[in-house]
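Lecture notes, unit on protein representations.

Consider one protein chain, 366 amino acids long.
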Amino acid sequence: MTDPAINAADRDISERLCDQVRNAYETRTPLRIAGGNTRAFYGRPVEGQPLHMAEHSGIVSYDPVELVVTVRAGTRLSVLQAALAEHHQMLPFEPPSFGENSTIGGAVATGLSGPRRPWAGAARDFVLGTRIITQEGKLLRFGGEVMKNVAGYDLSRLMTGAQGTLGVLADISFKVLPVPTASHCLRLSLSLEEALHKLAELGREPLPITAAAWHAGELFIRLEGGESSVKATRERLGGEPLEASFWASLRDHTHDFFKYRDDPPLWRLSLPPNTDPLALDIPQQDIFYDWGGSQRWVKTTLDAATLREVCQAAGGHATCYTPQARGGAAEPFTPLNSVVEKYHRRLKAELDTHAIFNPGRLYAAL
């Protein structure tokens, strides 16, 4: 049964949330920040008193002319996207939803971006400002609603991808963009070697490519932009038409590649552009190349140390998307080196002195 709180259309409960955070700070009570719980698999499990965000929902302001929207963190991602679509606009970083209860706060807290990421930018690139509930239960504003207002902007960027370990996102302001006037998706039958060579070649030209992936002998490409540019590139590349819904299935992990619970653990390998296939003993059918090859979804029983060693040698890192309870790695994220960990600890101690915000979500010591 769906939690009725998540259906709240327009409600500001920031005062109640501040009271709960203030009490947790005074009593040293850990909090588990929860929105739609569609991303609970991402990161380490958290033990704590739930801080329910879904009821804190609604679009605070939206100026289609200025391409700026401010929204409460508990707002469903689908609600925000529908409001933007009415004005033919979108969130450029194409956030994954992983379910109908997905909230915009969860999308920003995890910092995940969809297939458009290499061509449009990451989630943090479009966060203009935030209102954050601090450890003392204060509601403070950081950043603004225009790109030139940079006061406090860095903290808003820090919150993006911090998984709620530094504070509670209450409201978020975004830069949005118009939906492209023309779009065409296609598929080409190519080997992996041919596909990677093709993508490297196309990447040197100003073509309207906004997504590229490869799996099981097929290269998938999305073209978006002006009518003439899309048409000319489509005619040049040829191939067979591809349903636009393919990219949503890849983004939200509803594609057949991700569906089977009995599969080996799922890993995301993040690598520099134009990285060759890695020297890993993994069948090609168990690898899905996304972001033009920079992001690779891998299903494997290889141990975490082996995967991470190979990725790091190539200049990347590996993240486990399967919870430990289902056979995934005990540490989902690549361990920090001593210098980086020192700075993470200092930041955590400054913004969350008593470790009440999602303790252990990213790393056991944080």
